[in-house]
Amino acid sequence: MSKKQIIFLELNEVPQLILDRYSEKDSRFRSLISKFNMYRTKTFDEIHLSPWITWSTVHRGVTYDSHRIQNLGQDLSGVNKKYPPIWETLSKSGCTVGVYGSLHTSTLPNNLDDYSFYIPDPFSDHSICIPRWIQPIQEFQLELSRKSARNVDKSFVSSLNKKLFTSLVRSGVTSKTMLKAIYQIAQERIIATLTCRRRVYQTILNFDIYMSLMQKECPQFSTFFTNHVASTMHRYWEAAFPKDYEVQTQSLEWRQKYKDEVYYAMRVTYHIIKKLLRYARGRPNCEIWICSSMGQAPVQGYD
Predict the structure, then answer these.
(1) What is 45-60 written as a DSSP string?
(2) pTM beyond 0.85, yes or no
(3) What are the mean pLDDT values of the chain's consecutive 10-residue runs (303 residues total)?
(4) By CB count within 10 A, which of 65, 200, 242, 277 is most buried?
(5) Could you give the CA distance from residue 220 to residue 214 in angstroms, rounded to a whole number?
(6) Are 56 and 69 in contact (CB under 8 A)?
(7) Cα–Cα distance between 79 and 19 in angstroms, integer?
């Protein structure tokens, strides 16, 4: 029997409610997720929850009481020795491993060159990557993340350079994706509110790179972290589902402008899962695990 291959899709903060609502809207997605077994888990972290905490619990198999990881940028050298994340445990045991964007990966493992690929999280304080040629792309993304923490920075031309273009050509980003990105930028010139979709396009571009690396390397265990649905829900839940609110905070005009954004992000999720299933079918012992870490819900009376 061939060795098992596990693809761990980290679909950050997407609750069951959103999966159900999108399934009602899109029969293709409903059919797709029917191929999976679904389990609802419970965290025993006794602290105000955030993805920085719950993903650490998922990755390390111990709760916050043990790992004590609460914030991005924390020094993890001690906890990585005592409670290493799953990719370090597997890599040191001889498995081939790839990591793409998982939280708290800015603290690099000592055996970095043993990884099939290793791209730190989008909040990293450095751009060191395996393979090295991805570094210009990571530098570009980190700059975008810093500029667009709350609202998307429209100007990014100054960040473009020859190294970035060379890296993109080599990265495996498909021509179809590049044409869609160009179309997106063109649409923004006509409908300014569509600028908010750049966060989603960042995931589309990264997923192309991830799939290219998977085709070349085929690691036994790999992760791909995406926050595109969560970032959209944080901002536009009321636009998508105004009836969830006892008192609606935003104007009707605002809700009309952004009512499709959550479903747009979920449509991208559909295509990601579809491509992963296509990849898995070509391998005899490949499993896809999808985890959300924690869910979300509407916040009443938010500012």
Answers:
(1) --S---HHHHHHHHHH
(2) yes
(3) 89 96 97 93 90 96 96 90 97 97 94 96 90 90 68 50 75 86 88 89 94 97 97 95 92 95 97 97 94 89 76
(4) 200
(5) 10
(6) yes
(7) 34
